[in-house]
Design a protein that fits this description.
The protein is of the alpha+beta class and 164 residues long. Helix content is 30%, strand content 35%.
Length: 164
């Protein structure tokens, strides 16, 4: 065999090995994607079943700017020690407010937590959005309440500019 033929054969062999690795990776990714799809379907159907006997509430609130505001968690039921999570959704952005038994950093100095509500010291336009309280109780039962909050902010009128 000539060195040129061995070189082409070696390259072809490596290309075949690489193609085989790609096929195996593709198969693994496909299996993981199917698993994720199944998990997504399970989480969509499980909360609906878990929430069937629970109170699911949704309300709209208009709140005054720069005033304290309480946002209730209607999903909380007294008696047990459930896991409570608060989330804030604005558009496609979702931010945790209260997770793992504590307030998260952006809210730590602005919000007070109780099992039945969160209290803002002062709200601004940036606080307008959906507040979601999720309560996971015994047996992984889930209850959820949502409050759509919009800030009632004073209109800012344009300042007239004198014309010379």
């Amino acid at each position: 065999m000539t060195p040129e033929f061995q070189s082409k054969g070696g390259i072809l062999s490596k290309a075949c090995d690489y193609i085989q690795e790609l096929r195996q990776s593709n198969l693994r990714l496909s299996e993981e994607l199917q698993g994720l799809d199944q998990l997504q379907m399970d989480t969509r159907s499980a909360p609906a079943a878990a929430l069937a006997g629970a109170q699911v509430t949704s309300e709209d609130r208009e709140v005054p700017e720069h005033k304290p505001v309480d946002i209730p968690c209607a999903a909380f039921r007294s008696g047990s020690s459930p896991r409570i999570e608060w989330k804030f959704q604005r558009g496609s952005s979702l931010v945790l407010i209260y997770y793992g038994g504590q307030l998260t950093e952006p809210y730590r100095d602005r919000v007070q937590f109780s099992r039945t509500s969160i209290r803002f010291q002062s709200v601004t336009r940036e606080d307008s959005g959906k507040y979601i309280c999720e309560v996971v109780g015994d047996g992984s039962s889930i209850a959820k309440s949502e409050v759509n909050s919009s800030c009632r902010c004073p209109l800012s009128l344009p300042i007239p500019v004198p014309v010379p």
